[in-house]
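quick q for whoever's on today - can somebody do inverse folding on this one?? i tried earlier but teh output was garbage lol. tokens:
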């Protein structure tokens, strides 16, 4: 791996990136859609239409923003169905080796997800990869919003871990919001096409777009100081 005075830190996304759960997300989304009598959508439709915050995504199909009561019901149904479907999901192919190699090379990595923190930590632990990260952090507070402020707090915590700074970090995720959150703190981003967005959607972010996590890590290595 590339050597340098400053080593690149990776901030990994979880859902749709390290965890291959997009089909579980589609099933949970369709369960939520059924609550307001929306027709089910396909993976392709999801990837073309997905956006943050989530109520705006629902608006694209409803033709209006969901009411507060509808949002609460849909969000509750989504998370209930997702929890049932997630148990059948595996890590994205090659993830364990990528995480292991990065760690063994003396480089640091962390995980930041918009999945609820209390649910995320035991799930990551269950896949046996928690020791690969200097920090594992999920969403606190209401669901459906942006990752930007969570990324800000993530780096505030990372500052005490060997002086990890955004300018020496690369965010790897599957959503436009990952690029927005990276830019918010001054980090770079690489976006992965096998999760929540189509390649054409991701290319609008103005950051590198790749088709595999191996490509993402290789590209992150080229950013090393």
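ok took a stab at it. sequence:
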């Amino acid at each position: 791996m590339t050597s340098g005075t400053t080593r690149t830190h990776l901030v990994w996304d979880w859902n749709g990136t390290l965890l291959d759960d997009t089909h579980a997300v589609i099933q949970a989304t369709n369960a939520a859609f059924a609550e307001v009598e929306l027709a089910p959508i396909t993976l392709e439709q999801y990837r073309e239409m997905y956006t943050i915050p989530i109520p705006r995504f629902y608006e694209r199909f409803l033709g209006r923003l969901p009411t507060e009561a509808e949002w609460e019901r849909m969000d509750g149904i989504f998370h209930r169905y997702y929890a049932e479907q997630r148990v059948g999901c595996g890590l994205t192919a090659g993830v364990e080796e990528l995480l292991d190699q990065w760690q063994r090379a003396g480089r640091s990595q962390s995980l930041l997800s918009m999945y609820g923190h209390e649910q995320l930590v035991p799930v990551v632990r269950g896949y046996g990869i928690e020791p690969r990260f200097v920090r594992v952090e999920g969403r606190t507070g209401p669901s459906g919003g942006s990752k930007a402020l969570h990324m800000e707090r993530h780096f505030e915590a990372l500052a005490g871990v060997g002086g990890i700074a955004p300018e020496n970090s690369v965010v790897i995720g599957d959503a436009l919001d990952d690029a927005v959150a990276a830019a918010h703190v001054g980090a770079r981003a690489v976006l992965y096409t096998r999760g929540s967005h189509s390649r054409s959607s991701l290319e609008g972010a103005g950051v590198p777009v790749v088709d595999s996590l191996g490509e993402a890590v290789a590209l992150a290595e080229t950013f090393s100081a």
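fwiw Residues 8 and 224 are 5 Å apart (CA to CA). also The radius of gyration is 17 Å. so keep that in mind when u check it
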